[in-house]
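Researcher: Structure prediction, please.
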Amino acid sequence: MNPNLPYLLLIALIPLVGAAFVLCGTENTKKFIPNAWAVAILTIVTDLILILRAFYHIKTGYGNMQLSETYVWWEMPRIELTFAVDSFSLLLLLGVFLAVLVGMWFEKNYHDTCKPRIVFALFFLTSLSGFFMAADVFSFFIFFLIMLLPLFMLIGLSGDIKKQAAIFRFMLYNLFGAMLLFAAVIILYNHQNHSILLGDVSSVKLREKGEITLWLTIFVAFLSRIPIWPFHYWIASVNAALKNPLVFVVANLMPLTGIYGFIRFWPNTVPDTAAFCLYFLEIIGVISMFFIALIGVINKDINYKIFAFVTVYYIFFLLGIFLPTDQFILNLGFSLFAFLLIFAAIASLTAYVENALERENLKPLGIFSYMPRVSLCLAVFILAAVGLPLSAMFVNNFVVFAALLDYNIISALLALVALSLAAMSLLREFFLRKSPAPYPADTARCLDIAPPDLCFFLSAAAVLILSFFNPLWFLRG
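Model: Predicted structure follows.
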């Protein structure tokens, strides 16, 4: 189905247009920061409306690519940019834009390097949107690579990373993965003499050694984006150290690109010759989940606890992808939608509190007793993270876990323990900060979020609760 309005192209371009408006603004005026922030919020909301409208042009289901658009990259050789979406990719786009919107909400409180952060965050949204909508192999690689530029700039601008070697290795790992994917694209292009659609990769027939080389290359390329051994250390050392909520949210969206890459490439197209990778990934994934969850419990830094929670869930979703069936991929999408909103809200609210404590030179113990608005919002999202029936994660995680349990009971139980540890460490941190506070009331109460911020996060919580069974409840069928 091709509606008159080029929805997919607009979804990709609107953040770039918003970034251009912010970039052209004059910083020597007092109103620049609130105006730049307002442009960013308006840009994200506009794209959210377009994404919701695009849902009405497709049928619900994974693999139903009824909405597609094709544009020409180059004439000679002819390489086309093909955008195509199903309800799964649109659902991820919806979750990503909501997560960045939540991260952007407190950006107006951070005056240092505000302009470049907003510009590169919107640029990242453009590249990430293109990645989720790209339907041909070449465009898929282009957006997979180009999103590294805004990510690198955001990390460099955050000012929270002191170890330059960690940043260098972090970007080197990601660039290495992108180059491996480029090698796979070249192999496919040389074999077919033209760029092919993602759905047609299964029709490419190579010799046994060629198949193993191709799929191992793709396998490592996507795995390099996920904090799993041996890529976990440098990703953790950078992501967990980011204090700005917007940068933290953006950096922790990168593993989602690896998850999505596996979803689009692996389940239906991987040949039997490369299937042996699954056994190694299952073992490494479960062990990584367990130890990262333990480190999250032991580590006193709240940012690392959130990072551990995010990482454990990403690996859990990754294990679900490799099960013998893809019938519950949409259930996985429902869980991912709720997960993205939950982690973005927790990261943003805790970053706000940490910034306020540092500014006023206060200790975190008991601070929530004098911050009732923050406490209310965090309580909702942390309870949802723990697994109480407040979001789509509650129902759909059971679907994924049941499939894992049927496939390998030991791996499923270890994954459940890791998920429980990561969630309970967040809950424990919340109760520690909720205990009776040693501060005078007038010292801490002024640090609480404003009523508009409370309304914003309660609205996000309402979206989360409405997504309890199915975030796409508003569709006709």
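Model: The first strand starts at residue 67 and ends at 74.
Researcher: Thanks, that helps.
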